[in-house]
From TrEMBL:
Protein known as: RelA/SpoT domain-containing protein
Classification via PANTHER family: GTP PYROPHOSPHATASE-RELATED, RELA_SPOT DOMAIN-CONTAINING PROTEIN
UniProt record, GO biological process: guanosine tetraphosphate metabolic process
SUPFAM superfamilies the UniProt entry points to: Nucleotidyltransferase
InterPro entries for the chain: NT_sf, RelA_SpoT
Pfam families listed in its UniProt record: RelA_SpoT (PF04607)
Region (Disordered): 305-326
Source organism of the structure: Vibrio mediterranei
Length: 356
């Protein structure tokens, strides 16, 4: 029905507002109708604003999906009634004196956008993205449920416990596509929170169901949604850790293959030097050079062996005494050098001089 033809009694019945509640509200029926009519006339304009916000927000890589809506005129009128009911839990003094000329400055969710994401910590990248594009009317609100742990640095937010248990980030952004400032409320939450909040909203609003059994099961549902978010974050971290470990294993595997190749080359060089040493036939100068080269190769091999033990997956070349496998070679070289340093017996016979 057109708001112009809407009667007060029908409005109260449709929106579950009692006569006492209406009488306690500080709003005249004519003023309320004027607000509803004005909002109805600007719905298409406000839809364009919502669509613009949705398109820009969807470009953020951490945003899974975006939903938007423009507030229904009758729901707007019902909200104003409840916000002007003095003494009620929903009373807000900012709504006193509201008219068709200023309601768009007081009510900040005429245009509403929801940005949904998969993992809890995605919200911080989304926050950077949003605040880099639009100016906020007030400090963003970080809603948590009673009992939630908030370990992150949340100085940029006003942290509040939501009475209904909602977990989400709320922003009010200013824009002026035409000749009037438009406030757009953007809510950022996980897909699991969206599922719970949609069911909760469907049951509680606009009839404000206060059935204790229903509320009890909705609280359980809320905790399950929170647990699902925690599980999602855990699985994400687990996958990242497994991928990191797999990369580390692959790097070690390649490094070990390169080490083996170099190790085989060094052993081949040592074998070659031993062969040359055996064939030197007592030429001390040549032997000394070969021993020096051999010792250098062994030291290189020992250094590589030691380096490999510092890796996560070590290739050990140890004997029972804790010495490396190259130690016998070094011992042999040291003994050989010591033997070469001893005075050599002359092989030249002395000339015998006969005494006269």
């Amino acid at each position: 029905m057109a708001i112009k033809k809407l009667e007060l009694e029908e409005f109260l019945e449709t929106n579950n507002i009692s006569a006492d509640e209406w009488n306690s509200s500080d709003i005249e029926w004519q003023t309320l109708k004027e607000i509803g009519i004005d909002h109805r006339s600007k719905i298409e304009q406000r839809k364009e604003t919502a669509e613009l916000f949705a398109r820009i927000i969807q470009r953020c890589s951490k945003v899974h999906s975006v939903r938007w809506r423009v507030k229904d005129p009758e729901h707007l009128m019902e909200k104003i009634v409840r916000k002007t009911m003095e003494g009620s839990d929903s009373f807000n003094s900012d709504y006193i004196g509201i008219t068709k000329d200023n309601y768009h400055e007081i009510i900040t969710d005429l245009v509403g956008v929801r940005a949904l994401h998969l993992f809890k910590d995605d919200c911080f990248e989304i926050d950077n993205y949003l605040c880099g594009i639009w100016n906020t009317k007030d400090k963003p609100t970080y809603y948590v449920r009673d009992g939630d742990e908030t370990k992150e640095d949340l100085e940029q937010f006003e942290v509040k416990q939501h009475p209904a248990g909602y977990r989400s980030l709320h922003y009010v952004f200013e824009s002026q596509p035409l000749n009037q400032v438009v406030y757009t409320e953007v809510q950022v939450r996980t897909i699991f929170e969206e599922g719970w909040s949609e069911i909760d909203h469907k049951i509680r609003y606009p009839n404000f169901s206060d059935n204790q059994q229903v509320s009890y099961f909705l609280r359980i549902f809320n905790r399950l949604a929170g647990s699902a978010d925690e599980m999602g974050s855990f699985v994400k971290e687990l996958v990242n850790e497994l991928e990191s470990t797999a990369k580390a294993l692959e790097a070690v595997k390649k490094e070990n293959a390169a080490f083996k190749k170099e190790n085989d080359k060094n052993i081949a060089d040592i074998d070659r030097l031993f062969t040359e040493l055996d064939s030197s036939n007592g030429k001390n100068q040549t032997q000394a050079k070969l021993v020096k080269d051999l010792k250098a190769q062994v030291e290189k091999l020992k250094a590589q062996t030691q380096s490999s033990t510092d890796k996560s997956f070590r290739i050990r070349h140890h004997t029972g005494s804790g010495k490396t496998a190259t130690s016998p070679l070094l011992k042999f070289i040291e003994e050989y050098e010591a033997s070469q340093a001893k005075p050599q017996k002359s092989t030249t016979k002395a000339k015998v001089i006969k005494k006269t």
